[in-house]
Amino acid sequence: MENLVGSTLESFKILSVLGEGGMGIVYKAYDTKLDRHVAIKMLKSKVLNKERFIEKFKTEARNQAKLGHPNIVTVYGFIEHDGVLGIVMEYVEGESLDKVIQREKQLHIEDVIFIFRQVLLGMKYAHSRGFIHRDLKPSNIIITPSGIVKIMDFGISVSLENRTQLSRGKKVGTIFYMSPEQIEGRDISIMTDIYSLGCSFYEMVTGDPPFVFNEEKKILDAHLNSEPHLISRRLPQIPEMVDLFLSRALRKDPLERYQDCEELLFSLRELENYLKSMQTTSVKNEKKKKQKIKIYSIIGATVFLVLFIAITYVIFYQVHTLIESGELEKLKKYDVGALFENSDSGFSFENIQNVNFNSTANLNSIKFLGSNVLACSDSGSVFIYNIN
Questions:
Q1: What's the 3-state SS for the chain?
Q2: Active site annotation includes 378
Q3: Are 63 and 131 in contact (CB under 8 A)?
Q4: pLDDT tens-digit map of 7-26
Q5: Which of 186, 250, 183 lies closest to 218, judged by CA?
Q6: Which residues contact 253 (CB under 8 A, 6 or more apart)?
């Protein structure tokens, strides 16, 4: 199919390519009549000669044109160029959810609930109008810079009133988000979208769909026979209630799942309230912990201050008592400086003299006897010296 960038189709000037899928190319265009940007999905020429694909494409336009909701991309009309059909849609400035997940890896549970609630509101409206999407997945969900979520690509949606399109044996959808009944070609229902929504919710929280294998057969078999890993075990910060919420959405039997988006919205509100209560409890516990630390700090500081005052008082009291009792004067004899003081009645260092005993014997004792010094040697000799 030729690249139409730069060309003008009717009143639409093609500006750039927004994306390309299995069935067509999506262009950004400018509507010169209504002075607005639009998105135009052109059917690939290689399937143009296949009547069922063309009819499918027209059905997409008719279906979406009937759906007017803030969370669903609006369809404006048809376009045809050289035998190639196109559908003119609302241009949504934003990023697809799958790109957000690829960038962020795992979304915060509060963000998941914020996005999921809007998707549910859009799908609740679509279901109420009698349509099943059948290909709900993160790449078909757009998030605008202002946080508005929009569902796009009802290309394989089916009207509940058109039972001829619900025949057995048809597998339509994307394998990572495909319900067991789709895989087996059984009749689909609103619960088919519920299953795909559960898979998308799982991926938003963990970063991966419930079942990821290298072989398509293993993925399909897992949808039919296996249970996804519990998120709370994979991510300890996620409460078990998230597992309970998802387990019902991902039941193999459609009748055991949530029966409509309203029921799913109710459980989502319960989950949100539970998470808020956990946060409130956590905040309260944190406040209590901080209060305890503060109280313990005050008690510790008070005890330290009391001990400091008590010790200071004891020291002051003992010193004061010592001074008042006169006992301090008695302690002067232990003062080294007192040894150097002169005293008329006692010995002083001024009286020390060098004494030569004229002996090579080792002295083992010396005793002062008045003015005489008595010294004894190892050999038993006794020396007496008068120091006056």
A1: CCCCCCCEECCEEEEEEEEECCCEEEEEEEECCCCEEEEEEEECHHHCCCHHHHHHHHHHHHHHHCCCCCCECCEEEEEEECCEEEEEEECCCCEEHHHHHHHHCCCCHHHHHHHHHHHHHHHHHHHHCCEECCCCCHHHEEECCCCCEEECCCCCCEECCCHHHHCCCCCCCCHHHCCHHHHCCCCCCHHHHHHHHHHHHHHHHHCCCCCCCCCHHHHHHHHHHCCCCCHHHHCCCCCHHHHHHHHHHCCCCHHHCCCCHHHHHHHHHHHHHHHHHHHHHHHHHHHHHHHHHHHHHHHHHHHHHHHHHHHHHHHHHHHHHHHHHCHHHHHHHHCHHHHHCCCCCCCCHHHCCCCCCCCCCCEEEEEEECCEEEEEECCCCEEEEECC
A2: no
A3: yes
A4: 999 999 999 998 887 667 89
A5: 183
A6: none
Give me the residue label for tokens 């539970």: 274
pLDDT in tens, 42-92: 877 655 567 777 777 777 777 778 889 999 999 898 888 887 888 899 999
What mean pLDDT, rounded, does the chain reach? 82
When pLDDT is averaged across residues 338-342 and rounded to a whole number, the result is: 52
Q: What is the rounded distance in angstroms from the CA atom of residue 133 to the CA atom of residue 155?
A: 8
The CA distance from 295 to 284, in Å, is 16
CA dist 42 and 26 (Å) reads 6
Q: In the numeric block, which tokens belong to residue 126? A: 């679509």
| Higher-scoring residue by pLDDT: 319, 276 | 276
Whether 123 contacts 69, CB under 8 Å: no
For residue 272, the model assigns a pLDDT of 95
| The pairing of beta strand 141-143 with beta strand 131-132 | unpaired
301 has a pLDDT exceeding 70: yes
Q: 3-class secondary structure for 339-367?
A: HHCCCCCCCCHHHCCCCCCCCCCCEEEEE
Residues 111, 135, 193, 344: which is the catalytic one?
A: 135
175 in Cβ contact with 220 (< 8 Å): yes
pLDDT digits (tens, 9 = 90+) for 350-369: 555 565 656 666 666 777 76
pTM value? 0.69
